[in-house]
């Protein structure tokens, strides 16, 4: 859908106060449902079913509705189903992709980037770290195209553009000492990583792994709570593409992975 994106702070849902347009309802693809959804709903029935699910989603996120109400509505709209993982082969980057490069891209391409970075960190007050600005480069909900796409067109360093394509394929994930705390396909699970708790995109780099868009967290959030949140986001994404994999969800909802992880870390520190 083409529309102007509002970058002003607007509270769309009290359960996720830093979200913006991604919290709005958008009708799914009736054609995709007919081909891959395996259902018999008419377009009008499908639209009504998707809208009912979205309203229940907003209520659950705001703490005004039960999680148990979501899956039956998602199934009725053909959105829930077996989790599928990416099977595509990964390529090895020849050089690392520094977060400072991506942060510079964001500063050049995104108006009011330091306001929008709240959608990564969930925090409108602190100075954003470089990794958070770098993560903003891949967001699909802040304009007609991602900040990184303009860089792809202009950058002459082929090794660096190849590295950026490798990072593009890497799904953001919550890690502790390099171990993913969310499900990942086998080929996208790193063999190890730096110590600490963080959200990052792990990509193959020579004989090892690089970690791009790395946002360090002050504590480890509840991974089960985060996975449940992303499961619901997977149902939302399937409205447009019912063949979407779990890794597609992590990439397309990258801001939710970061923001929910950061907010969960602070809840963990408070003992909530």
Summarize the structure in words.
Helix 4 (99-109) crosses helix 8. The protein has 272 residues and is of the alpha+beta class. The longest helix has 19 residues, at 43-61. The protein has 12 helices and 4 strands; from the N terminus they run αααααααααββββααα. It has a domain at 90-272. It has helices spanning 30-37, 43-61, 70-76, 99-109, 113-116, 118-121, 130-136, 147-154, 158-169, 223-237, 246-252, 254-270; strands spanning 172-176, 179-180, 197-205, 208-216. Strand 3 (197-205) and strand 4 (208-216) form a beta hairpin. Mean pLDDT is 88; it is low at 1-10. Helix content is 44%, strand content 9%.
Can you tag this structure with a few keywords?
four-stranded antiparallel β-sheet; 12 helices; alpha+beta; 4 strands; disordered N terminus; 272 residues
Condensed summary:
This protein is α+β, with helices and mostly antiparallel strands. It has helices at residues 30-37, 43-61, 70-76, 99-109, 113-116, 118-121, 130-136, 147-154, 158-169, 223-237, 246-252, 254-270; strands spanning 172-176, 179-180, 197-205, 208-216.
């Amino acid at each position: 859908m083409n529309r102007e994106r509002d970058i002003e702070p607007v509270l769309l849902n009290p359960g996720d106060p830093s979200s913006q347009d991604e919290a709005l309802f958008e009708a799914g693809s009736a054609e995709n449902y007919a081909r891959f959804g395996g259902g018999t709903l008419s377009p009008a029935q499908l639209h009504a079913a998707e809208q009912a699910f979205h309203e229940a989603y907003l209520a659950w996120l705001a703490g005004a509705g039960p999680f148990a109400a979501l899956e039956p509505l998602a199934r009725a709209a053909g959105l829930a189903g077996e989790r599928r993982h990416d099977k595509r082969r990964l390529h090895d980057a020849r050089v690392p992709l520094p977060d400072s490069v991506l942060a510079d891209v964001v500063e050049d391409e995104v108006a009011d980037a330091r306001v929008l970075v709240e959608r990564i960190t969930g925090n409108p007050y602190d100075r954003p770290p470089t990794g958070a600005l770098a993560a903003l480069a891949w967001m699909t909900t802040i304009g007609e195209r991602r900040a990184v796409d303009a860089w792809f067109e202009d950058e002459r360093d082929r090794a660096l553009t190849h590295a950026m394509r490798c990072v593009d394929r890497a799904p953001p994930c919550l890690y502790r000492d390099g171990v993913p705390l969310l499900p990942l396909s086998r080929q996208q699970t790193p063999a190890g990583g730096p110590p600490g708790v963080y959200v990052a995109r792990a990509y193959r780099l020579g004989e090892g792994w690089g970690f791009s868009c790395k946002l360090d967290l002050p504590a480890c959030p509840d991974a089960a709570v985060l996975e449940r949140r992303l499961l619901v986001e997977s149902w939302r994404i399937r409205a447009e593409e019912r063949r979407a994999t779990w890794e597609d969800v992590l990439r397309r909802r990258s801001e939710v992975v970061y923001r929910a992880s950061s907010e969960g870390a602070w809840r963990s520190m408070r003992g909530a």
